[in-house]
């Protein structure tokens, strides 16, 4: 059963998210409002944010919503100091759409404008998609939220990888991140 969000739900989320520009991310981990229901926002596997079956076309609005996104044990929520509304995420909430090496660091840029440096707190992990058998790479962005590393960026990682103990491996900030065994579809 889907709860009906309060009448000011989307407006309240937008207002809370607008507090973020120029001041970093809102402290959603400190906000503990009661669950107010589900809101018809879906983040598709391709990274498109949808509201009531229509794409949210304003990049600035998607960025604002991404700043108040939180992963709780019962799913993904948009959170304000006064409201908590569950949304649907088909895969991961973000996509890592670009990557560059800066000195000894790999810095990823997400589709919502976050820059994330791969390190011990922001690991790159690669699992195998059970449906396709393909690599399913991701990077931790913040507080349990992850970005799917898009195919072209993953190919760039594979190109720069070295073989370590039979696994293709990249390093960033002194950390080694295995991409997969040599010959397992990642070469």
Describe the structure.
The chain has about 190 residues and is mainly beta. The protein has two domains: about 10-90, duf1285 like fold, CATH 3.10.540.10; about 95-180, duf1285 protein (duf1285 protein fold, Roll), CATH 2.30.270. It is built from three helices and 15 strands. The protein has helices spanning about 10-15, 60-65, 150-160, and strands at about 35-45, 50, 55, 70, 75-80, 85-90, 95-100, 105-110, 115, 125-130, 135-140, 145-150, 160-165, 165-170, 175-180. The strands form three sheets. Strands 3-2-1-6-5-4 form a six-stranded mixed β-sheet. The chain has a six-stranded mixed β-sheet with strand order 9-8-7-12-11-10. The protein has a three-stranded antiparallel β-sheet with strand order 13-14-15, with helices on one face.
CATH class categorisation of the largest domain: Mainly Beta
Task: Measure the end-to-end span.
Answer: 46 Å
The tally of beta strands, per DSSP, is: 15
CATH architecture of the largest domain: Roll
Neighbour order of strands in the largest sheet: 3-2-1-6-5-4
The average pLDDT value, as a whole number, equals 88
User: Unreliable segments (pLDDT under 50, ≥5 consecutive)?
Assistant: 1-7
Counted by DSSP, the helix tally is 3
Radius of gyration: 18 Å
Taken together, the total number of domains comes to 2
Overall morphology: elongated
CATH topology of the largest domain: duf1285 protein fold
Q: What amount of the residues lies in strands?
A: 35-45%
Helix content: 10-25%
């Amino acid at each position: 059963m889907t709860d009906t969000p309060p009448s000011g739900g989307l407006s309240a989320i937008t207002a809370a998210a607008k507090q973020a520009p120029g001041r970093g991310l809102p402290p959603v981990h400190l906000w503990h409002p009661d669950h107010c229901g589900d809101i018809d926002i879906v983040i598709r596997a391709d990274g498109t944010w949808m509201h009531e079956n229509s794409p949210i076309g304003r990049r600035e609005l998607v960025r604002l919503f991404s700043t108040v996104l939180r992963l709780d044990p019962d799913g993904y929520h948009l959170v304000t100091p006064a409201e908590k509304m569950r949304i649907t995420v088909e895969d991961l909430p973000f996509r890592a759409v670009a990557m560059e090496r800066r000195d000894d660091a790999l810095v990823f840029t997400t589709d919502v404008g976050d820059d994330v440096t791969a390190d011990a707190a922001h690991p790159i992990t690669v699992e195998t998609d059970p449906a396709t058998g393909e690599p399913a790479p991701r990077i931790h962005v913040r507080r349990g939220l992850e970005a799917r590393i898009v195919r072209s960026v993953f190919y760039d990682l594979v190109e720069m990888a070295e073989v370590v103990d039979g696994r293709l491996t990249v390093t960033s900030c002194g950390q080694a991140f295995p991409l997969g065994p040599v010959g397992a579809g990642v070469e």
